Amino acid sequence: MAWTQTDIDALKAAIGRGVKLVRQGHDIVEYASMAEMRAALAMMEAEVAGVSRSAVTIIYPYTTRGL
């Protein structure tokens, strides 16, 4: 689903009020916990910002003993 800033704002408002029911588009979503709401919010913000969910982290090894 393509999230919008309006969806993010609605979820933030619900979190602020402590409400677990949120209208997202034409649907009403009931979250099980605040932790689930915060996880959904992070996912939505990342998607709207254009961050890929399958981002790859590159780690460059560093040694002090030489290889």
Could you describe the 3D structure shown?
The protein has helices at residues 5-17, 34-49; strands at 21-24, 27-30. The chain has a domain at 5-49. It is of the alpha+beta class and 67 residues long. The model has no long low-confidence stretch (mean pLDDT 83). Helix content is 43%, strand content 12%. The chain has a two-stranded antiparallel ribbon with strand order 1-2.
Largest sheet: 2 strands, antiparallel
Question: What share of residues are in beta strands?
Answer: 5-15%
Q: What series of H and E elements makes up the topology?
A: HEEH
Tally of helical runs: 2
Map the helices and strands.
Blueprint: H1 5-17, E1 21-24, E2 27-30, H2 34-49
Antiparallel strand pairs: 1-2
Helix pairs in contact: 1-2
Core attributes:
2 strands, alpha+beta, 2 helices, elongated, 67 residues, 43% helix
Short overview:
With 67 residues, the protein is an alpha+beta fold. It has a domain at 5-49.
